[in-house]
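Customer escalation, tier 2.

The customer says the design service returned an amino acid string that "doesn't look like it belongs to this structure." They asked us to rerun it and document both sides in this ticket. The original structure tokens are below, unchanged.
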């Protein structure tokens, strides 16, 4: 398999060979009208905002355990390959309309009702044209299969509503940021939170609108993270260097927690002929601007670290190094960043000396980490004498 070509092709047949991602459609006839079910899942595009594509995701036929098609927690736990994930997601047709994020209609209201559900929902889908099999990949959200213009959608059963989300939906005075954090405390995971935020069913009623899926994922990670930062600032600081590591799905992550107050930095590295990297950083007082260099990965990684610090009731400075290897030839979404960081905390190695940390971490990557450590703003700040040292 030519992985570089696969990343560009996305099922368009550039190589002339059978496509491992779209092999599902060999035995399935794509139709304009079909009965299906959604995990439940919707997708809101971002191009030409505020007039965007808004769609419901569902396979072109009734399928067993359709919730699995949108369950990246299970994929990660079961160590699914990129090909296996692509094969699953290729089966989800994006039946969509074009509309304003601020205007309601019957189809959008149906999408919102679907999003309130806690289980899969049976649907009748009627499209304007037969969809063509093709993959659609995104850096932040999970890939999806073909898309087609929606003529009409009808719920074929009553939606089994998640009562936690329903309560927030009917509270039209509750701001979306507060709703997200309250639902998170009640056990609603960040994937579901991003979906309901995207559907425009949270927040003060007059301000409610659809949010592009990519933006909603990052917004949830960011707001949950900010709330957890407030909590850990009251915690005792760690007194050793803690090193964690995870390598899954063509990505390697090393999390280094250091004694000190909360600061955070992420390096995302790619080894080609020479080392290429992007980085973002925040001080104890946070960031004022979006982390555009590392984008959604910045906030997803940060959330994974903060969850661990809250769990351990500790505070630390966090440096994360991510290596994107040649095996990550197909973007599957920022969720794998979050899950890799969470997974790293299954094992810790502790050091009392920074030089020992560097010696150990060097062995984890295919490049010389000193090339990025000398550029680290977090490490430079740690070397600067603190005002308290003089009193």
């Amino acid at each position: 398999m030519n992985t570089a070509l696969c990343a560009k092709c996305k099922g368009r047949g550039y190589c002339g060979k059978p496509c491992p991602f779209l092999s599902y459609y060999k035995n399935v006839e794509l139709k304009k009208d079909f009965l299906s079910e959604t995990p439940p899942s919707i997708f809101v595009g971002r191009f030409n905002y505020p007039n965007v594509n808004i769609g419901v995701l569902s396979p072109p036929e009734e399928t067993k355990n359709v919730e699995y098609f949108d369950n990246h927690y299970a994929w990660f736990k079961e160590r699914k390959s990129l090909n296996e994930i692509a094969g699953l997601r290729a089966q989800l047709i994006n039946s969509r309309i074009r509309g304003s994020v601020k205007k309601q209609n019957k189809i959008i209201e149906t999408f919102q009702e679907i999003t309130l559900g806690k289980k899969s929902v049976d649907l009748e889908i009627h499209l304007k044209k037969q969809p063509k099999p093709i993959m659609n990949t995104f850096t932040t959200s999970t890939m999806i299969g073909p898309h087609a213009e929606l003529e009409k959608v009808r719920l074929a059963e009553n939606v089994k509503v998640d009562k936690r989300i329903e309560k927030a939906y009917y509270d039209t005075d509750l701001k979306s940021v507060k709703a997200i954090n309250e639902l998170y405390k009640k056990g609603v995971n960040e994937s579901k939170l991003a979906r309901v935020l995207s559907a425009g069913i949270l927040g003060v009623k007059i301000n409610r609108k659809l949010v592009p899926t990519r933006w909603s994922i990052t917004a949830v990670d960011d707001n949950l993270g900010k709330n957890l930062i407030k909590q850990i600032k009251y915690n005792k600081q760690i007194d050793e260097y803690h090193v964690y590591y995870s390598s899954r799905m063509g990505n390697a992550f090393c999390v280094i927690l250091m004694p000190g107050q909360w600061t955070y930095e992420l390096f995302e590295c790619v080894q080609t002929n020479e080392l290429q990297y992007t980085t973002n950083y925040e001080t104890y007082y946070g960031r004022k601007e979006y982390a555009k260099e590392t984008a959604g990965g910045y906030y997803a990684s940060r959330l994974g670290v903060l969850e661990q610090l809250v769990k351990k009731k500790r505070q630390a400075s966090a440096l994360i190094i991510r290596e994107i290897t040649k095996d990550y030839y197909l973007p599957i979404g920022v969720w794998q960043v979050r899950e890799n960081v969470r997974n790293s905390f299954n094992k810790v190695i502790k050091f009392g000396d920074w030089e020992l940390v560097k010696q150990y971490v060097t062995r984890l990557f295919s490049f010389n980490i000193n090339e990025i450590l000398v550029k680290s703003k977090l490490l430079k700040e740690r070397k600067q004498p603190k005002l308290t040292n003089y009193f």
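Tier 2 assessment: The sequence is consistent with the input. The longest helix spans residues 213-232. The chain is about 30% helix and 25% strand. Sent an explanation to the customer and offered a walkthrough call.
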